Hints:
Elements (H helix, E strand, L loop, with lengths): L11 H16 L3 H17 L3 H17 L3 H14 L8 H7 L7 H9 L6 H16 L3 H17 L1 H6 L1 H8 L12 H29 L12 H12 L3 H4 L5 H17 L3 H12 L2 H5 L1 H17 L4 H11 L8 H11 L6 H12 L8 H22 L2 E3 H8 L3 H13 L6 E3 L4 E3 L6 H37 L1
Antiparallel strand pairs: 1-3, 2-3
Helix pairs in contact: 1-2, 1-3, 2-3, 3-4, 3-5, 4-7, 10-11, 11-12, 11-14, 14-15, 15-17, 17-19, 18-19
Amino acid sequence: MAEVKKQEKDFSPEVDTLIPEATELGKAGKLSEALEKLFALEKQTRNASDLSSTTRLAKTILDLCYEARDYTQLNATIHLLSKKHWPTQRRNTGIRRAGRRVAPGDSTTVRAIKYGWNWRKPCEQLQRARSSWKRLVRASPSCYRSTMKHLRSNRQRHPRVARNRCRPRVTCLSDLQVETYSSMERREKTEFILEQIRLLIALARLKDAEVTKTKGKEGKIGLGDGEPEWVKARVGGRKINETFLKEKENEDLKLKFYELMIQLALHRSAYLDVAKHYEKVWDTPSIKEDEGKNRAALEHIVYYVVLAPHDNEQSDMLHHLFVNPALEKLELHYNLVKSFVTRELMRWPGIEALYGPFLRVTPVFSVAKQWEDLHTRVIEHNIRVVAYYYTRITLSRLTTLLDLTPQQTEETLARLVVSKTIWARIDRPAGIVNFKSKRTTEDVMNDWSSDMQRLLGLAEKTWMGMNAALAAQSRVKA
Length: 478
């Protein structure tokens, strides 16, 4: 930052004379003339390092633009002042406060966007003001605090209005890289990033809902898919240091962070990630102390780990969960995990009759898609069990064991083969499924070589044992 020079001259008398004159010109509709006079004196005060006079002039300039409702001029003025006063921005608190008139989320700005600017493209007109305001308030965390406080209060008092005004706020706030601001405390940065993620998720859902609503209607164009906002939210989640969240005083931030991450993972149907996030929540001391929350978190871990597609990581987490003593207290959930761990067939009608009445009333399996995903995981488990015990099986018998139609059986088999979970080939004319791959000559030779090495090793070990025994007998005879 540039060094602040010593004040060379005091322009207070000239400023006291010019401000009332410029104010009268602004009220008379002569904004350009008033700004011209103010900028001329502002340049002199700035070059003379008269900070108080420069701040008064800058505030007057912004106030005149705002009162005239000339938002284009207001944006240009803030952009210009942010460049001129960047070397002394830490001391220009007055300019920062004046610049907050166009702060993202300010209610006055939202009204200005709605009635003064083109409502269809508010974010484009806010862009320059937002970036300039960011430079002016970079050293003032209180601006961020007040902005977030305003957003929360509006959301609580007027949820419908806050939802309608979500789009320009998210556009303005999501691009602020607060993690680079050294003037903010670490907790404040984390709170602000979490608020950014929350707003992005809200906007993404709003866009997705509008696309679904307008889909198939001719002549209506929705906002577009909310996938860009989902991606931005995931990027924002990577900015959070999870080690910092492990500190006891940051437990509230930790719970809020993993709540948002669970929403992001559920959007992608990444059930294993959801289970991991719930496991982090379950390990939180405050959750451990609350019996109800502790039980709920453990139940969600079970639900989502069995919903996750089978792979090495999912299998490892499932087996570790099965041997956890805390799970034994939940008999029904323990038996459900045991069914997936044991290499035995699970007939879907029996699973549905045994666990259906309980699981279907839970928030997780009340969703039809997730109940269908559970059915799919049961079928995949059964196919892995059949592939483990059988080398060949008729397609009709496999269809009976899986309680599926022949077409559904082939589709499920094909999906598991493509994912390399199992090896299988279907002989359709013969109606036979082969789970054992044909061995190549190289495989046979490798096995034979391995067997020969074991045989030679055993012979050598036997020979050494016999020599040792003969040596011992010779010593006894001697």
